[in-house]
Amino acid sequence: MPVRNAPLRPLIKALSLSSASPTLLTSPSTTSYAFRRLFSNTARRNADFTHAVIGGGVVGLAIAQSLARKHPSSSTLLLERHNAIGTETSSRNSEVIHAGIYYGADSLKTSLCLRGKELLYSLCAKHDIPHRRTGKWIVAQNDLQLAALEQIHNFCKNELHVPIEWVSLETAKKREPAVRAEKAILESPTTGIIDSHALMLTLLGLFEEAGGTLALSSDVKGITPLGNKGSSGWELVVSDPSGETSAITTETLINAAGLGAVKINNLIVPEDQHKKLYYAKGNYFSYPAPQPKVNTLIYPAPEPGHGGLGTHLTMDLAGRIKFGPDVEWVDGPGDLGVNQARLGETIREVKRYLPGLDEGQLVPDYAGIRPKLGRASAVAHGKGFVDFYIEREKGWEGWVNLLGIESPGLTSCLAIGERVEKLLYGR
């Protein structure tokens, strides 16, 4: 392991000096809490930082800004292995603000999506982040899909109390004449779309205004718990693009590394506790043709055992239509080229609800990878459902671990930030 005075140390010192008198947010939301630390006090004397967040995607940004703003006397470091924030799953998704209607009532995916949606719409309004409440239709073409819609409707009405309503087929023909639904349509009026890049830049701005430090091109290669399993803090060995490594110390460690989170986890725990990540690639195809024109997000009814929510119709804020993601299991996170061999299946899926699709107008657009903890269903059907894992690890001091943060991670990001802060400090 490199010695403590490795090359990153001057950089850390310079960053610390440059933010020695940061501009702090002093609104009541950042100063009115009575906090108690749920991690050891013994690491405070010598650690470089109070918090080290690994992963500069939308979830890591949300966590880092939450910690920096709510604890202005602390120091927070955000480590990102790439040369820019949010280059992986955070920028390669559907950019949908989800309603939180697909998952079990007692799941983290439901509670964090519902809370996150509320916080996200509020943040968008406050900071002028481009977004739009488009609403979403979930369409059923057969009796099996109709049963799924009825289950979602009853769940939303009786347990979640989330707005949901049936759209008559007659009304549907007037509103979206190009859309086909043989059996039924459910509408989620609180679903929307967002500019994910603008969101991440806003979160970064809030983080830096609160005195946070962002270190790009900083790949964590080694992690050592100090004292008794982190009772004296944590040492992180970080590599820069040239391959030089440096060591920093932190009181607390937050693993929000997304596609790299299982790798970070496995750097810490014994080999017999190692986890495996499954990579669900989603291919997207854009549709520049002017017809058929659709103004609402369209999702097929969920089907048990499917690794995603089906190939759906979404759009960006300029109205450009795109279809995806499908589910293609791949061996690693680096396979980001659109698999054009999936085009035929995409056409078949889309024409079930958009029969007027001009097949020749579909263009390969982009692909993203979802980090999954199992090859399981994306919705809460039976034993296949896998929830978010966000826990303060038992038996360790000051380590919060986030694994399997896929959809609805974007919608949930601010609520995840709240949860992590509570796990470290309580209320």
UniProtKB/TrEMBL annotation:
Enzyme Commission code: 1.1.99.2
Entry keyword annotation includes Transferase: no
Catalytic activity from the UniProt record: (S)-2-hydroxyglutarate + A = 2-oxoglutarate + AH2
InterPro entries reported for this sequence: FAD-dep_OxRdtase (IPR006076), FAD/NAD-bd_sf (IPR036188)
Enzyme class: oxidoreductase
Every FAD dependent oxidoreductase domain range: 52-420
Gene3D superfamilies per UniProt: D-Amino Acid Oxidase, subunit A, domain 2, FAD/NAD(P)-binding domain
Cofactor annotation: FAD
Domain of life: Eukaryota
One Pfam family cited in the UniProt record for this chain: DAO
Record keywords, A-Z: FAD, Flavoprotein, Oxidoreductase
Family assignment from sequence similarity: Belongs to the L2HGDH family.
Protein's UniProt name: L-2-hydroxyglutarate dehydrogenase, mitochondrial
